[in-house]
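Researcher: Last one for today. Full complex below.
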Amino acid sequence: MFARGKNSIEFNNVFLRSSATISGPRERKGPLGKYFDDSYENSYCGEESWEKAEIRLQKDAILCALKKLGLKIDDMKAIVGGDLNNQIVATNYASRDFNIPYLGVYSACSTCTEALIVGSLLVDGEFGENVLVVSSSHNSTSERQFRYPTEYGGQKPNSMTFTATGAGVAILSSVASPIKIRRATIGRIIDPELSDTQDMGRTMAPAAAMTLKQHLEDFEIDINEYDLILTGDLSKYGSEVFLQIMKEFNYNVTTNHNDAGKMLYDLENQEVFAGGSGSGCISLVSMGYIVDALKKGIYRKVLLIATGALMNPIMIAQGETIPAIAHAISLERSKQ
Amino acid sequence: MIFLYAFLFGGLVCLLAQLCMDIFKLLPAQLVVLFVVLGSVLEAFQLYDKIIAFAGAGALMPIASFGHSLTHAAVEGAMNTDYLGLFTGIFDLTSTGIAAAIFFSFLIALVCKPRG
Amino acid sequence: MEKSIFKKVLDRNTIKRPIFLNSIKAFLVGGTICLFAQGILWFFKDLLNIEKDKAISLMYIVIVGITSLLTGIGIFDKIGQFSGAGTIIPITGFANSMTSSALESKSEGIILGIMSNMFKLAGAVIVAGVLSAFIVGNVIYLFR
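Model: Here's the assembly. Have a good evening.
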C-alpha cells in the first residue's frame, strides 16, 4: 500500500471476495429488499431481546458470506467490525465463538467504512489472505440506548432518521476477485457546532464533504471519476446540505450522488421520516445492492462515504455539540 | 357544558404545549417539567381550583394539575398541623395516580413484550 | 475557514416543522382525551354517586390503566407520534413514560430491569413537582 496526499491510502492487492447481508422486516419491504441474502419477519429475529437479535443478524451474515465461498471461519485471518451498541457488544458477542484474532472498531454510523479500511490494511499489509469485516445496527437497540424506550409516545420530528436493522459482511482478500478495493481516505473529526440529536443528517454533511474533497485532492481526480458517490446516513436533509457545501468547494456533484439512507427505504410510503441511518444502513446498501450492481456492470467505480456522529446522550446533556466523521473507501470492477 | 369546556380547555393546554415543543425545540421531559411547575405556581394565586370548577377533566388531566395537587396538599398539610406538614402531606392527593402508574406499569411489563 | 461555509449552508437549509398542523393535532387529541376523562368522571360521580374526590381518583386510575394497556399492546407510541403534546401533557404522558421504560427493560429481569428503570423518564416530573410544591408551599404558608 502507498500513502497518498494528506489523508489517503492506495491499496495494491485487496479484493472484495464475498459479501452477505441480513436485514430486518422494514428493510426487506424497502426498494432494495430483494438484494439482501435473507431477512427476518420480525425485528426480534427469533431471539429474546433486541441485543440478541442484532447478534443473530451479524452471525447469520458472517456464516452466509463464508458459505458463498465454501470456506470456514478458520480460513479467516481476522475479524474486524463494529456496531452502535455501547462497547460494540453486538460485534463482541457475535465474534465470541469464532476463536480468531478480533479487532473491534467504532465510528458510529461510519463504522462500516472504517472496518473496511482497517481490514484492507491487514490484507494489503500481508497479515493474512482473508479478513472478514462486519458491521450492523438495529432500530430498537439504538432507540433504547440513544433515545427513548421503543413504546414511548414522544413525537419524533420530520428531521429524524430511522436506524436500520441489518448486518453487512465483506470478506476482503488478496485472492483476485471481480471487485477490487483500491482507494481509501481516513476522515478527520468535523464539528459544525450543532447539538440537535434529532437532526443528525445535516450535522454529518460537513464531515462527508470534507472527506470527499480531501479524497479528490489526494488522488488528483475529479468528481466524475466515480459512477456513484454513496454517502452514509445524510438522508433527505443532510444530502442537500452536502451537495451545497461541495458546490461552495467548487465541485459540482449532480447526477452521481446518492445516499444510503434515501435508497434503503421508500421515503414516501414507509414511515421513516427523513430516511435511514445506522452503521447497518450503508452496510446493507453497499454489501447488498452496490456489490450486485458492480458485478453486473451497472457501475464501474463507486465511492462509499459512511458518516458517523461521535456523541452520546451524556455529552449532549452536558451542553456539548455533535462532532462527526466520514471515512471513504472505493469499490471498483477489477480489470480481469 | 362542562364536557365542552373540558374538551376546549384540555385541547388548548395541549396546543400551547405543542407550540412550545415546535418553536422552542423543547424535549418532552423539559416540556412536562415546565407545565408541572406552572401548575404549582398557579396554586399560589389559588387559580387552579377555579379552573377545575369550570373545565373539569380539562384541568385535571394535564400534568399541571399534578403540580397543583402537590402544592395544594403540602399547604393543607402545613395549615392543618405545623410546618412539618409541608413534607408529611405533600403526596396526599397524588398518591393514587403514582401508585396506580407503578402497579399498572409493573403488570404490563410482566405480561407484554415491547414491539420496537 | 470551512466552518463559515458550513454555517452558511446549514443556516440556509433549516428544517421547517409543520407547526400549524402539529398544533391542530395536539389540540384535537388532547381535547378528546380530556373529554373522555370527563365522561369517566361523570360516570363515577353522577351515575354511581361516588363522592367527588374518590371519583377523581377513580378517573385517574382508569386513565392510567388504559394508557398502560395501550402502551403494552404497542398502539400508544403510534398515537403519540401523531398527537405529540396531545398525549404527553395529560396524565397519559406520565403513565406511558413509566410503562414504556418498565417494558423496555424487561429483558434485564424484574429487579435490575423493570423495577430499576421504571422511573427513568418520569423521575424528572416527580422531582420537579415536589421541589416546586415545596418552594411555592413555603411562600403560600408564610403569607397566610
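Chain C touches chain B through 81 residues (CB under 8 Å). Residues 18-119 of chain C form one domain.
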